[in-house]
Structure prediction request, 609 residues.
Amino acid sequence: MKELAYFLTYLKRIVILIALYTLSRIFFYYNNLDSLTETNIFEIIEGMRFDLSVIAYINIPLLILLLLPINIRTHQLYQKITNWIFYTTNIPFVILNNIDIEYFRFTQKRSTIDFLELIQLGEDVINITPTYIKEYWIITLFSIAQIWIILRIKKTPKNNIQSIPKSIMCLIIGISLVIISARGGLQLKPIKAINAGELTQSENNSLILNTPFCIIHSLDSEKLPQHEYYTQNEIEKIYSPIHKNKLINKDLSKTNVIIIIMESYSKEFIGYYNSEKGHTPFLDSLIQKSLVFTNAFSNGLKSIEALPAITASIPTLMNEPFITSEYAQNKFQSLASILNKEGYNTSFYHGGHRGTMGFYAYCKKAGFQNYYGLEEYNNKTDFDGSWGIFDVPFMKYFANQIKDKKEPFFSTFFSLSSHPPYVLPENHNPESNKIGILETITYSDYAMKIFFNQIKNEKWFSNTIFIITADHTAGRKYNNKYKNKIGRYAIPMIIFKGDSSLQGVNNNIVQQIDIMPTVLDLINYPKPFFSFGKSMFSEEQWAISKLQENYYFITPQGIIKNKEENYQKYSNWELNKKTIIKEKYVKQLKAIKQDYNHRIGKNKIHYEN
Prediction:
């Protein structure tokens, strides 16, 4: 039995870790009920398979230190080193696992290596961590309790080796169990994130998975798969990102363009879309004089995914944002780079730190001539304490800046006050004592009102197109209509012209990557260009997104959910009513997948004559 003491110590620690991961999964479940479909206890049990797999990986050093047949393992220093290695390898992963209990609300997927890359961009993590620890205090206390339990694990045997063969046998058995556990069983191939839900036929992949598993398995992420559904001639007849404008005999209109990206502006917050029950009185009044799109969707669920989609028509149809991916250095066209060549002054405004989410580096790569952020604003009295400058003062700053811009100009403004943690300036008194997403939405709507009032009498105002949309929806849902996979992508899309010449309602299915070709359409851009999207005024109607291993393709006939080569067709946003959709839409989805992966992987996301 003495030879088994070290082996049993190892097993005891593994069992405790599995228990902690299971408790986190239960907490995750209750905190994200709105985002999960029908659940059952077997999903928790299947989740233990993925827990055991990643725990086995993480604790390989523990296995070696405990089971290596050497007498030095009885020394006090050796045992202290063993314990500290156990703590330092497990506590960070427990924390990351618990972060996703709340972060999942916003991303709708388990974090991968892209999360670690994201928090290294700029100084945001330093500024927001104290606020988040306080804001989500329940998760903080839960994590502290789990860390305390881990730190209480100290006891290790003090037995010298009695039998070398028996000790070696324990080591061999331990290594064998680790291999089987890490692989997820004795099946042909080791389990990966895509295998979540196979045993229980569940759609709740994120409930079954855990964050450490997803991070570790994304470290060796493969290149984008190269699909071969069609030949080049065939694919060009189905889908092509090369746009050749038919208005070659018209002159470029030299109209000014302003894109306003509103942080977390879910469609459900806008009164116009919800029987006038909303939180944006100014935007609702502007809609009455605008062209409004009733079926608009985001292409992703993160701000870092929205910027390339909106300004360069590049969606994130891979497992990490384009900005932080290995493909970020690809040559690509954006509205800024195209309009630079037409004599436009181009600029980007975001009240955050220059390094926030890689926006500054992206804007330089995209060709924006000028970037204005917290550093350029240079007045920390309007700093919100976390992300950047409050929307009202920064929109005033934006208005003052563009007044001096030489026409024609193209500017993009990205708000931030409706991003968690939710805070408002002291001089702004919300109707409620509690400040949450709804109060900050109303505040940022008021900022837009101030902005438009400040510029409406400028000479260039009537010759300016304004496109107002969201980067993504908010993590929290209030209206049952939007508490589903597709509702999670529903955003506002409004086009306003200063002279009120663009008005009406358009029911086409549109998306963020359609903004770039639509702008070029509106200003009569006569040259060919590259865009994964299509003009909102074209006859084509579709919107696409990818979440973990699933594609969602929205068509006039319903939604296609695609995982690997399984194409399921639904008539409703809840994705629980099967329907029949014309095969041409499946072909179109396949063509987009093939063309996107090929062009992104081969650095062909730009037009060349």
Notes: The radius of gyration is 27 Å. The chain is about 40% helix and 10% strand. The first strand starts at residue 242 and ends at 243. The longest helix spans residues 76-107.
